[in-house]
Amino acid sequence: MRAGNLRHRSVAVVVVTGAGEVVAHRRADWKDVWPGRWDVSFGGVVGVGEDWPTAACRELAEEAGVVVPASALRPLGFGSYRDGAVSHCGHLFVVTHDGPFRPADGEVAELVLVPLAGLEGWLAGRDLCDDSTALVVPRLRERARGDSPGTPHHA
Q1: How far apart are CA 103 and CA 63, in angstroms?
Q2: What is the pLDDT of residue 6?
Q3: Which of 97, 81, 57 is nearest to 137 (CA)?
């Protein structure tokens, strides 16, 4: 799929703490796409026959060590992204969780908590994954302004 840059289904989950901090992470240097870059969501490829919420919960557990029921996920939208390295479409979710955060699969090299109110300043100094810049960051900006419908619920 990656070698041929084939279009695939994906999920992304933004984790926001009860204090309004986005749980951001730096990708491992061995990742095949965007190694060492920062990301503001956890996620990945949806498996064959897997539904969106199940994939989101699985990816969240693998990458952040956070286990939540699908009912804790709140929709953040649907998006599509394509460039020379990646081609995917998928659902974006948000969940509120205060940790602990224990990355389990080695894909996450580092975690930081970024106050939503200070997101712009933090982003300015970081090399972020291109798909998150295109799909997730605009929705976080809306949320920071209070334009986003609904609020995340505690898991």
Answers
A1: 5
A2: 66
A3: 81
Q: Is the dihedral of CA 145, 150, 154, 155 positive or negative?
A: negative
Rounded mean pLDDT for each run of 10 residues along the chain, 155 residues in total: 72 96 95 93 94 97 96 96 89 96 90 94 93 94 70 38
Residue entry with tokens 């190694």 = 35
DSSP notation for 50-100: --HHHHHHHHHHHHH-----GGG-EEEEEEEEE-SS-EEEEEEEEEE----
Distance (Å, whole) CA 19 – CA 132: 22
- Name 62's bridge partners: none
Q: Note the pTM of the prediction, 2 decimals.
A: 0.90
Amino acid at 80: S
Rounded to the nearest 10 degrees, how much is the dihedral formed by the CA atoms of 133, 138, 43, 83?
-40
CA distance 11 to 20: 22
Residues in CB range of 92: below 8 A, 6 or more apart: 11, 12, 13, 14, 41, 75, 76, 77, 78, 79, 135, 136, 139
